Amino acid sequence: MVHKVAVIGAGPCGLTSVKACLDEGMEPTCFESSDDMGGLWKFKEVSEPNRASIYRSLTINVWKEMMCYSDYPIPADYPNYMHHSKILNYFRMYADHFKLLQYIRFQTKVKSVKQRPDFSRTGQWDVVTETRDGYEENHIFDAIICCTGHFNYPNLPLKDFPGIETFEGKYSHSWDYKGPEDMHGKRVVVIGIGNSGGDIAVEGSRVAEQMYLSTRSGAWVIRQVSDNGLPVDRFNTRFVHIMFRLLPMRFLNWLGEKKLNSMYDHVDLIVFATGYNYDFPYLPKNAIYKSGHRIGLYKHVFPPILEQPTLAIVGFIHSDGAIMPQAEMQARFVTRVFKGEEFPIKENLKTEIAKNYVVSKLTPLQVDFVEHMDDLAKDIGVQPNLLWLFLTDFPLFKKVLWGPVTAYQYRLMGPGKWEGARKAIFTQYDRINPAPVSHLAPPLILRVSK
Asked: For 70-126, what is each residue's pLDDT tens digit?
């Protein structure tokens, strides 16, 4: 049986991995090379080499009820879509509540991980670490969980821009971006229409003389606020997931595009101003699709349709998010494997993913959220049994079927069952917060042992 586990990285995945190890009776040691937890969500005014970097106004694009850990709801007074300072503070509260800090060794870098000479018999690993003072230490672990993230290195393809050597202006990657201060009164072009590109173009358009957005891809613009001012994530339900499997994709595309165009007509507002040709479907691919290469005047097109609905509930612009439930479920699955349980491995997973999502080195690997979570949950015995709920707890059955697929559903039964899961599901709409701009006041910071 696995006893000692090395967890590399104290970001959202590392934190929940430490907790999963403790839940399974293992001895985790988490090595974090920086001086704090949070990974991507630890903001610094100056970007550091080999570390993820975020900008000052960054706000997550996932509703708090859909992104929180399964047995620790985000406080009710936190906004629906949280500023990075709130997310980091949530991690601090999570680590403090489950007493995880004592298992984290800050400012300790993992230099190497190698199989031991007797690995075929013991399955153990040699791990070499180095402290900030240069002190090296050798360790032996029974298992390794690598939680180092995938946003650490900026991709700046200068070779693709002929003439960049003689360009007299300033250019940089969004990894270096902290705020629009350097854009005042300037003509600016943002290359790329991902979440970060959209954020920066909107924010920069407030101060720049003129803001352009260059992209090889068109994009369906999806806002965070749906009908009645409720989070759009609430439509991610089991019932909707079932309908996606039963109804023709052509009909689902028509329905989705009609809904998006009811918010703002993509043809009138975007095609007319930019020249984009919306000849690609909304589904099944992700939010960014291949289309013609165009440069559009961004300042006068996107800010009104992106800013106004969003500012009403978060005070800033939305951007890249991380869904903690997926990281948590993977950690729970892995620690069960460590205990010797055997689960079937899905063959040709990447081929399946490619059928529904763009697979490239430019985009993170994506999976169907509900299907992915249910697959892992089924293997470890925590998938909610709809038939059993229908027969024994009909009010809860309705919440699980018709409500958003929040992580609390995977704490209702089986290993790791949490007695508070049912209540968390019934009160998840009570925690919806209109989030006035005042939420940007300095958050409560818990002291971190180093």
From this structure: 999 999 999 998 999 999 999 999 999 999 999 999 999 999 999 999 999 999 999
- Between 276 and 298, the more confident residue is 276
Is residue 213 within 8 Å of residue 296, measured between CB atoms? yes
Q: Which residue has 């039964």 as its token pair?
A: 413
φ/ψ (deg, to 5) at 403: -85, 170
Average pLDDT, the chain: 79
Interatomic CA distance for residues 94 and 64, integer angstroms = 14
**CA atoms 171, 176, 177, 179: torsion sign:** negative
Report residue 9 as tokens.
Answer: 């990285």
347-378 pLDDT, tens digit each = 555 555 445 555 555 555 566 788 889 999 99
70-85: burial string, b at 16+ Cβ within 10 Å, e else: bbbbbeeebbbbbbbb
The reported pTM is: 0.83
Cα dihedral across residues 230, 233, 235, 239: positive or negative: negative
- Could you tell me if 204 and 174 are in contact, meaning their C-beta atoms sit under 8 angstroms apart? no
Domains annotated on the chain, with CATH: 4-152+278-384 (3.50.50.60), 154-262 (3.50.50)
In whole angstroms, give the CA distance from residue 134 to residue 137: 10
* Cα gap 55→48, rounded to integer Å: 13
Contacting residues for 170 by C-beta, under 8 A, at least 6 apart: 182
